[in-house]
Amino acid sequence: MDIWDKNKRSECMSKIRSKNTKPELVLRKALFARGFRYRVNVPNLPGKPDIVLPKYKTIIFLHGCFWHRHESCKYAYTPKTNTEFWINKITSNAERDKANFQKLTALGWNVVTVWECEIRHTYKHNLALLIDRVEVEILKNQPRKISLKFYE
Ligand SMILES: [Zn+2]
């Protein structure tokens, strides 16, 4: 049985969804510490990207696993109540993500996706590993600038 009624659930979901949630701050702080400068929540680009690095023509989406249907992730579960509603909602989110990705890459943007579970769980105790991965992705367009420390 669902422990929340509908109102409570949607109230809670909207909190999860709100901007400047902790994982985003964690990611931004870590990127800043590595010397990356960015803009946040740029509204005039497809998908209102969370983090934009103009210098590297790179966009970072920090996706919640539930809302953006992270494939084979345990947080991308299907709720037991209002199942049809959630399936439709989340499927359309995933389709919109795909369309935005295509639009952005067509415009020449390098698009990087970071999943919330990576920050909350997978790399919780070694965020540097995640940021290494993101840094490599950011620098994709400029391979000569990748620092040698990745190959040590
Ligand atoms: Zn996930």
Automatic annotation (TrEMBL):
GO terms for biological process: mismatch repair. It holds the Pfam family Vsr. GO terms for molecular function: endonuclease activity; hydrolase activity. The keyword DNA repair applies. Coiled coil: none annotated. SUPFAM superfamilies: Restriction endonuclease-like (SSF52980). It is an enzyme of class 3 (hydrolase). It comes from the Bacteria. The keyword Metal-binding does not apply. Keywords: DNA damage, DNA repair, Endonuclease, Hydrolase, Nuclease. Its EC number is 3.1.-.-. May nick specific sequences that contain T:G mispairs resulting from m5C-deamination. Belongs to the vsr family. NCBIfam families: vsr. This is Very short patch repair endonuclease. The gene is vsr.
